[in-house]
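Sequence only, no structure available. Ideas?
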Amino acid sequence: FDTIFIFNQGAQGTESISMLNYSTLLDRLNLGLGSAVSILLFLFVALIAFVFIKGFGAGAAPGEAR
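Reply:
I predicted one. C-alpha coordinates follow.
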Protein backbone atom coordinates (compact mmCIF):
# COMPACT_ATOMS: atom_id res chain seq x y z
CA PHE A 1 0.00 0.00 0.00
CA ASP A 2 2.55 2.57 1.09
CA THR A 3 4.92 2.25 -1.88
CA ILE A 4 2.19 2.62 -4.49
CA PHE A 5 0.54 5.45 -2.58
CA ILE A 6 3.75 7.41 -2.07
CA PHE A 7 4.98 7.09 -5.65
CA ASN A 8 1.84 7.74 -7.68
CA GLN A 9 -1.30 7.59 -5.50
CA GLY A 10 -2.64 4.65 -7.51
CA ALA A 11 -2.44 6.44 -10.87
CA GLN A 12 -1.72 4.65 -14.15
CA GLY A 13 -3.62 1.54 -13.15
CA THR A 14 -1.37 0.62 -10.23
CA GLU A 15 -3.87 -0.24 -7.55
CA SER A 16 -3.53 -3.02 -5.01
CA ILE A 17 -6.36 -4.42 -2.91
CA SER A 18 -5.27 -2.12 -0.07
CA MET A 19 -5.40 0.92 -2.37
CA LEU A 20 -8.86 -0.14 -3.56
CA ASN A 21 -9.99 -0.43 0.04
CA TYR A 22 -8.55 2.97 0.95
CA SER A 23 -10.11 4.75 -2.00
CA THR A 24 -13.48 3.04 -1.56
CA LEU A 25 -13.71 3.61 2.16
CA LEU A 26 -12.16 7.04 2.62
CA ASP A 27 -12.10 8.86 -0.73
CA ARG A 28 -15.50 7.80 -2.04
CA LEU A 29 -17.08 7.35 1.43
CA ASN A 30 -18.69 4.10 0.36
CA LEU A 31 -18.69 2.64 3.86
CA GLY A 32 -20.57 -0.57 3.09
CA LEU A 33 -18.36 -1.71 0.22
CA GLY A 34 -15.20 -0.51 1.96
CA SER A 35 -16.06 -2.46 5.10
CA ALA A 36 -16.83 -5.57 3.05
CA VAL A 37 -13.47 -5.32 1.26
CA SER A 38 -11.73 -4.90 4.64
CA ILE A 39 -13.39 -7.99 6.08
CA LEU A 40 -12.65 -10.09 2.99
CA LEU A 41 -9.02 -8.97 3.03
CA PHE A 42 -8.73 -9.88 6.72
CA LEU A 43 -10.31 -13.31 6.17
CA PHE A 44 -8.02 -14.01 3.21
CA VAL A 45 -4.89 -13.11 5.19
CA ALA A 46 -6.12 -15.15 8.19
CA LEU A 47 -6.73 -18.16 5.93
CA ILE A 48 -3.25 -17.93 4.43
CA ALA A 49 -1.71 -17.59 7.91
CA PHE A 50 -3.67 -20.63 9.13
CA VAL A 51 -2.53 -22.74 6.17
CA PHE A 52 1.10 -21.74 6.68
CA ILE A 53 0.99 -22.46 10.41
CA LYS A 54 -0.58 -25.87 9.82
CA GLY A 55 1.75 -26.65 6.93
CA PHE A 56 5.05 -25.63 8.48
CA GLY A 57 4.16 -26.11 12.13
CA ALA A 58 4.18 -23.61 14.94
CA GLY A 59 7.75 -24.57 15.94
CA ALA A 60 9.26 -23.72 12.57
CA ALA A 61 10.51 -20.33 13.75
CA PRO A 62 14.30 -19.86 13.63
CA GLY A 63 16.08 -20.66 16.85
CA GLU A 64 13.37 -22.92 18.25
CA ALA A 65 13.92 -26.59 18.89
CA ARG A 66 11.47 -28.96 17.24
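Helices lie at 2-8, 17-27, 31-56.
Hope that gets you unstuck.
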